[in-house]
Automatic annotation (TrEMBL):
SUPFAM superfamilies: Nucleic acid-binding proteins, P-loop containing nucleoside triphosphate hydrolases. Residues 446-606 form the Helicase C-terminal domain. GO terms for biological process: DNA recombination; DNA repair. This is ATP-dependent DNA helicase RecG. Keywords: ATP-binding, DNA damage, DNA recombination, DNA repair, DNA-binding, Helicase, Hydrolase, Isomerase, Nucleotide-binding. Its EC number is 5.6.2.4.
Length: 672
């Protein structure tokens, strides 16, 4: 008898070769196949052209009133054109690169065509010629080479016929199913693949989303509860007087938000519970100063601290800054680009404990790095490191406290919900004396005026970044690439300014030396792709020009803008863009109106979703099967509330309902 864990090859009609192709979609067992849901549905119900919105995909029926005309152009490209009459309306239809359809088109015959509607031209771009009008919804699955929609649907139907669905266990307790009026698991799986109508599909989707987000939140809440009750963390009993004296001697005063965040971090460090905190702060808000004082607190208690950053140049920048702040301490730097002698010396000092603070790249987590007494681990731009990299650093030493920092502003409610296993500290004010960056949006036609203004600013001693979204030409995107831009600007400035170029295809050494030259003012204009996005501090750079700025999301534009305004001089961000969409125009407008990263993050959430804010899977946020933490925020928040309620009950894991949840947590686990 087939079970949910039976391999696909045990299903009728699926041989080893087919099973191999399915494995590319991460479908290994019968259960995987049943849980491989469509990502959308096509509604194949025929519609009147008067009901269809411009740009919408729909099925249009009508009578063929002109012979089909097949035109060839370019290499192996062709277009099939004909006219269709629906009622009194005559519609132009085009099929691209489907010449074989010509033989199926008989003058006067009734046709059903699925395509994309253009209301301005009264035209349909055909996608599929249907054998007949279908009155149901057709699932659309993500595919891979060798697996077609038809073969996938056939395999799923075979899995349904095998009877395995009937034996699949329920994964949500009845108390939650009743409370939220959810479909049972079997009903939901059936309706996800073969819904009777749209309403039934939406109910199935609601159940599946709730289940995913509920288990995500249960994972977070259980982790958090275990950490809170775990008294095996380090109690870093720092010297309060020493720390207060150090804070008073700093060349700047901490803002209220910095003080509040530092107090929260210090409180965690003193307790026996293990610290796992996220420090969020806008670009230039002074996260590093807070992290430095936390490292000093660890030193005063006799512990080492390690700060891991994504690039060598950032490591050097932090090393210089810590050395200036704490000249009395021994501080080591460790990067993979170091010479062997220097690296061996640093490793020896770290091992024997003669250095109190260590700054480095992922070289800090190599196997040969042994710490003497590691008490505090800090990762900067935490989303740049994979979950595993962060874990390896955490496992160095005896369960050190962990602080993660990010300059990517995430709305507080979402941060608390999405990073539920962490405590969140937010620095939401800029240090005194920082002048807000003046942001202007100009069209490409105004670029000459911008360059003329830039020339005058450079003569006064300013430096500028000029950002290009692409490295080289792309036929499909009409963008100025970095190389062409570099050549153009070099020609424009001739002998009046030194122009340098940096892009992602260069080695780390090349990038570092170009950045170093810019930092030392040996070049005045740095043309770059977005590789300069993260944290390098060049106080003299006061101008940021972003070409084709409408190609970026708000969060990325804000990160780029944050490369200037690092000193006390007035800084400027110039967005050069001719946006064609309303959304592009809206982004440009918002950027000129606000310099608050949290305001922009909220707007970005609404406009572009979570990908822009959390970046890739690296962030530790899982890729859900169907849920989206932005679109389904209401479900996510309810799942957090109920999960938190369950875990906060005494002996919750002894109750029958929640024991089932605990067992399933292992299967739904998203963390290492």
């Amino acid at each position: 008898m087939l079970s949910e864990n039976s391999p696909l090859t045990e299903l009728k009609g699926i041989g080893p070769k087919s099973a191999e192709k399915f494995q590319q979609l991460e479908i290994f067992t019968v259960a995987d196949l049943l849980l491989y849901f469509p990502f959308r549905y096509e509604d194949y119900k025929a519609r009147s052209v008067f009901e269809i919105q411009d740009g919408e995909k729909a099925v249009v029926t009508g009578t063929l009133v002109t012979p089909a005309n097949l035109q060839y152009y370019g290499r192996q490209k062709n277009r099939l054109c004909f006219k269709l009459k629906q009622g009194e309306v005559v519609i132009s239809v085009s099929f691209f690169n489907q010449p074989y359809l010509k033989d199926k088109l008989q003058l006067g015959s009734e046709l059903a065509i699925f395509g994309k509607w253009d209301s301005k031209k009264t035209a349909l771009t055909g996608i599929k010629l249907l054998a007949q009008v279908q009155e149901d919804m057709q699932p659309v699955y993500r595919l891979t080479q060798g697996v077609t929609q038809a073969s996938l649907v056939k395999a799923i139907k075979t899995a349904f016929e095998s009877g395995v669905l009937e034996r699949l266990p329920e994964t949500l307790p009845q108390v939650l199913i009743d409370k939220y009026r959810l479909f049972s698991r079997k009903e939901a799986i059936t309706a996800m693949h073969f819904p009777k109508d749209l309403a039934e599909y939406k109910q199935a989707l609601r159940r599946v989303k709730f289940e995913e987000l509920f288990y995500f939140q249960m994972n977070l809440q259980v982790l958090k509860a275990r950490r809170k009750s775990d008294q095996h963390g380090l109690a870093i009993v720092y010297d309060k007087e020493k720390l207060a004296a150090k804070e008073a001697s700093l060349p700047f005063s901490l803002t209220g938000a910095q003080k509040r965040s530092l107090d929260e971090i210090l409180q965690d460090m003193r307790s026996r519970s293990h610290m796992n905190r996220l420090l969020q702060g806008d670009v230039g808000s002074g996260k590093t100063a807070v992290a430095s004082l936390a490292m000093y607190a660890a030193y005063s208690a006799g512990f080492q601290s390690a700060l891991m950053v994504p690039t060598e140049i950032l490591a050097e920048q932090h090393y210089e800054s810590l050395t200036q702040l704490f000249p009395e301490l021994s501080i080591a730097i460790l990067t993979s680009g170091m010479k062997k002698v220097a690296k061996d010396t640093a490793l020896e000092q770290i091992r024997e404990g003669s250095v109190q603070m260590i700054v480095g790249t992922h070289a800090l987590i190599q196997e040969n790095v042994a710490y003497h007494k590691l008490g505090l681990v800090i990762t900067d731009e935490q989303h740049r490191f994979g979950v595993n990299q962060r874990r390896v650093l955490r496992e160095k030493g005896e369960n050190p406290d962990v602080l993660m920092m990010t300059a990517t502003p995430i709305p507080r409610t979402l941060a608390i919900t999405a990073f539920g296993e962490m405590d969140v500290s937010i620095i939401d004010e800029l240090p005194a004396g920082r002048k807000p960056i003046i942001t202007r949006w100009v069209k490409h036609q105004q670029l000459d005026a911008v360059l003329s203004w830039l020339k005058k600013e450079l003569e006064k001693g300013a430096q500028a970044y000029v950002i290009s979204p692409l490295i080289e030409e792309s036929e499909s995107l009409d963008l100025k690439n970095a190389t062409a831009l570099y050549e153009e600007l070099s020609h424009y400035f001739k002998d009046s300014a030194e122009v340098s170029l940096m892009h992602g295809r260069m080695s780390a050494e090349e990038k570092d030396s170009i950045m170093q030259a810019f930092k030392e003012q040996r070049s005045q204009v740095l043309v770059s792709t977005t590789v300069i996005e993260v944290g390098v501090n060049v106080p003299n750079a006061t101008i940021m020009i972003i070409m084709d700025a409408d190609r970026f999301g708000l969060s990325q534009l804000h990160q780029l803008r944050g490369r200037v305004g690092r000193g006390d001089k007035q800084s400027y961000a110039i967005l050069v863009a001719n946006p064609k969409t309303d959304s592009g125009k809206e982004r440009m407008k918002i950027m000129t109106e606000s310099t608050d990263g949290f305001v922009l993050a909220e707007a970005d959430l609404k406009m572009r979703g979570s990908g822009e804010i959390f970046g890739t899977r690296q962030s530790g946020i899982p890729e859900f099967r169907v849920a989206d933490i932005i679109e389904d925020y209401a479900i996510l928040e309810e799942a957090r509330r109920v999960a938190s309620q369950i875990v906060s009950q005494e002996n919750w894991d002894k109750e029958k309902d929640w024991q089932m949840v605990l067992k399933n947590l292992k299967e739904h686990s998203i963390f290492d």
